[in-house]
User: What shape does this take?
Amino acid sequence: MNALLTRLGVQVRPFRALVRTFATMDLRGQLYGLSTGAKAGELIPPLFWVYGQMLTVSLLLCAALAGRVDARFYAFANLSVAALMVFSAVVVEFHEAAYDPEDVRVIGHRPVTSRTWSLARFVNLLGYVALVGVAVTIFPTVMGVGLRDTDATWVFRYPIASVMTCVCSASVALGLYVLGGFGERFDGLRQALAWTQIGGILALFYGGQFMIRNGTGSVSMMSYDPPDWVLNAPTWHLAPWVSDGAIMPLAVAGAITVVLAGLALWGMQRAWSGVATVQAVTAKVIRPIYAPAWLAFFGVTRRGRAIFALTRALFGRDRELRSRTWPALGMAVTVPMIGILAGEYASPTAGLTGAAVVPIGSVVVLCGAIPSLLFNLTHSRDHIASFRLAPFWDGDARHAVAVAVYLSYCLPLLVLHGLVLTWVWGDGLAALSFSLTSAVLVALAARLCVTSQLKGPIASRSWRRGGTSGSVTVVIAGVSALAATVGAVWLLASASLVLWGAFVAVLFGALVASVVVDRPKREVA
Amino acid sequence: MNAFLRTLQGQAALFGLTTFLAIVLGAAIATQPHFFESYVVQKYAEPTVSEAAVAAAVAAGTEPLTDDIEDSVYATWMLASELPDLTALSDDDSVRVRSLVMRTVVSGTPEQRATAVRLWRQARPQDDVLEQARAYAERLGRTDVLDALDAL
Assistant: This one.
């Protein structure tokens, strides 16, 4: 081995040292540390938890599909999930696994040749992709043999297809960085994708239950009569190799894999070989904080506007706070996805059916996420935001923080939901009326969480850790129950335009009243 | 032990052990297909007297099959000791019944599937099942199914 490395012009000892260092960096991945809650120095490192989570995603998918779909759809679903997992893993830990422009400051002055550095990076990247690939390949390979329409050759065919899928997916992720530069441009994407495997577990856990309990068998029916987006997916075209041993898909996939991997490695090689070049260091520009005047429209006072701006700045600067925010919203994203995929996402105005309950249910779930969002921001000892906001904690501040959470997370989600509804229902007016009602209901839920009249744990002050357990669960349960009740009334009121108008008017009145009642009394000079 | 686990070799052993356990677990699950098959079942509620009367009226073609009654009517037919004569169904109703039958073929037990197919054969003996199978196979690009159909 040493002789081979020497023949390749690689410095053996630096190479081994670099490989060990990179492997340690992989294990202690910072973003995966945030999403798994494991610190870098712990005995079980973040990457190990991610490996276990990916195994869990794969196991849940295999168990959910076993006995319900044919071999081709089984292969398609597993290959698609493998592609998604590998893509997210490479994007999230790109700076640890593949290339970090900051490394030049650490190693640039040391006598390590560019070739040694490049090979160490390449070996580490290969090992990282292989590790993730193994996690998403084991269960489909072993459990797929037990399907009704497969035989023992599945054990060889599936891993081959999975390797191609993983290499293609990793190449696309690398290409994203090669084309987009290697700086901090994709930091937002990296933070969001760090939750991919956790989101996958949630989606499959609840989606699997939905599949088993769903009397109309809509998920199973979808697999037997796949929609066009499935028929156009690359993994759908590769699946016949796995299910039937068709050679042509294998040949085409092989050629695509070689081309994509070659292009990605060519791009990466150019980056790796330039590591010895010292790059100019530019100072980070911290953007000023603005407190927009239009917030008065939301009942935010002049003092509250400053607190709103501070909250927004804290959201922008505290990566961990942002990372802790996504899990609370996971269900609010998952429920519409499952409903739409299963064809159980109808407009309430179209009739009082079971499918009409799901969109309202997704809004109720979003309401239930708000207490966690607020609690993380204002009560968690883990986030600097709680300490920054503590001195201002009165009615003004509570309202400003609630508006900040609403405008930063809830409203964008509701707008996106409205666009999706327009596409799914094909009725812009129904989608608009639904979104407006949702916006008022979610705003009311946010207000209820912070109103001092209820004397809840968010309105009062008590330091806690975490945002999903302890006293906040009482608020989550209360807000969810109330939102579910209001949602039921909403469903019934959707039968008539007059009833719906009255319902929205009452909701809006309650929202305004909650702001007015909680407004702090001003001392007269 | 902790010191060993903190080394790269220790971490590699941890990953290896997890992978091995995953393979063992996967193999154990793969040998129990009946466990998963038991969950692939359609559940039908026992019909009331009035639902049975409505189902008989729909079968006789005197009452249309609508969204709100289709599940209870279909359940009544599927649970009946003797399958009803559905030849009097209107074309619109037969389309509904066919989708219900298809649903059972996909998500029912083998016995439920057989019952559903018998029900459909009784309702529409002239329905060209082979043509439907061909259209389905062509859409999905299933050349193996097309070859099998040609052989018929």
